[in-house]
Amino acid sequence: MVPAAPTSAGLAAFGGGAIIGTLGGLIGLGGAEFRLPLLIGPFRFHALEAVILNKAMSLVVVATALPFRARSVPFDVLVSHWSIVANLLAGSLFGAWFGAGYATRLKSSSLYRVIAVLLVGISLVLLLGHGADEQAQPLLTGPAQVITGIGAGLVIGVVASILGVAGGELLIPTLVLLFGADIKLAGSLSLAVSLPTVFVGFTRYSRDRSFSVLGRNLRFVVTMAAGSIAGAFVGGRLLGVVPHGLLLPLLSAILLASAVKVWRHR
After folding, report:
1. pTM (2 d.p.)
2. At what angle do helices 142-163 and 47-68 cross, to 10 degrees?
3. Could you read off the pLDDT tens digit of each residue along the chain, which spans 266 residues?
């Protein structure tokens, strides 16, 4: 990261986190998918360092968001849907461990390319996978649903670890389409799956020497995470004010532009 005066660096970290958190909050997400390009671009962290920092902030944001949502979706409701959480975790925990290990073995130039491709994928999910607002019938039932849930969790865990995100942008459409959850319940179930998934990926990254970036930038992480939480709260209050028909294409375009910059990064 480029050195800066403590005050200006703190303001930039908090402000950047707040903007990202607000963007995510507008669509019911934490915004980590937008935070990663910010860490790689303006803040100039190397790819793996940016992923590790993003993963640390995702862990803080998810841990904070879950109790915040308890008023709208009580914990006993989440417990009553434990089988869905367990189904996805059966794949996502392994995926998170594998994804983090894979990222640490890649050359930096290759990791930039992988991140860019995944950002393009996330932008497409935002456009195509977040249109459902009402509860639907489950896409599958019985053993087919369980097997598909494990497979989906595996993919989500890998993607979440490589990008350092919580995975809500993939989990919510999966919960709505595969399990027939309504959008409000899907948001909380997503956090219940994300928290242990993020923790497993974070634990795997802690075994790599690049993890030392966290100790060197702890104040930065705390400040940006605080900004992300504040922004997510503001974005959540504005949820529905900006039509999704306008917002989702805009956010998707931001991710596509970010993917191009990350792909070209040296």
Report:
1. 0.90
2. 130
3. 544 445 677 899 999 999 988 887 777 677 899 999 999 999 999 999 999 999 999 998 888 887 877 777 888 989 999 999 999 999 999 999 999 999 999 999 999 999 999 999 999 988 886 655 555 688 899 999 999 999 999 999 999 999 999 998 899 899 988 999 987 788 889 989 999 999 999 999 999 999 999 999 999 999 999 998 898 888 777 766 777 677 788 888 989 999 999 998 86
Residue 95 CA to residue 20 CA, distance in Å, equals: 26
Domain edges within the chain: 6-264
